[in-house]
Amino acid sequence: MWFDSWSDLIRVGLVGAAAYVTLVVLLRLSGKRTLAKLNAFDLVVTVALGSTLATILLSTDVSWVEGVAAMVLLVGVQFLVSWGSARLPRGRAFVTSRPTVLLRDGVPLDDRMRQQRVTLAEVRQAVRSTGVGGLDLVAAVVLESDGTLSVITLAQSGDGSALHDLH
């Protein structure tokens, strides 16, 4: 079907604009955490918000108010989970994975790389992207909870306190 009616197009335009503005306002009110680097829970909320916005735009069975209620619910749950994970030690462990050291003092930790499904080639790429030419110059490569690889060179390692809470 190419065209149904002008009223459908007007509805998409008006409801879409209102839903978009509402989503932007909700994201601004919910704080920077909602838009930060994503862990698994943040990704789920982000995808759900996008799906909700699309449903509000395209489904005549869902009113703008119902869609806003769904977005408020998602942002509210995300706020509660992030609040709990920041204040409760077990809350953070429930929502996010712990960072994992994949290379220490230039030596790849094969069992941890296998467990995290990261190849030595990916570790080498992360090291190269920081401008380091050899693994022997690296104090640690850490797979962070958001999936990024952090590289700490021997020259940057200092007292190593940034690595104390890692296993």
Provide a short characterization of the protein structure:
This protein has 167 residues and is an alpha+beta fold.
**Extended strand count:** 4
Coarse shape: elongated
Amino-to-carboxy terminus distance: 58 Å
Structural class: alpha+beta
Report the mean per-residue pLDDT as an integer. 86
Sequence-ordered SSE layout with sheet pairings:
Blueprint: H1 6-30, H2 40-58, H3 64-87, H4 89-95, E1 100-104, E2 107-108, H5 110-116, H6 120-129, E3 138-143, E4 149-153
Antiparallel strand pairs: 1-2, 1-3, 3-4
Helix pairs in contact: 1-2, 1-3, 2-3, 3-4
Account of the protein in words:
The chain has 167 residues and is an alpha+beta fold. The chain has 2 domains: 90 residues; 64 residues, bsu07140 like domains (CRO Repressor, 2-Layer Sandwich). It has 6 helices and 4 strands, in the order H-H-H-H-E-E-H-H-E-E. A 4-stranded antiparallel sheet has the order 2-1-3-4. A hairpin with a 5-residue loop joins strand 3 and strand 4. Helix 1 runs antiparallel to helix 2, helix 2 packs antiparallel against helix 3 and helix 3 packs across helix 4. The radius of gyration is 22 Å and the shape is elongated. 14% of the residues are buried. The mean pLDDT is 86.
List keywords for this structure.
167 residues, four-stranded antiparallel sheet, elongated, CRO Repressor, 2 domains, 4 strands, 55% helix, 6 helices, alpha+beta
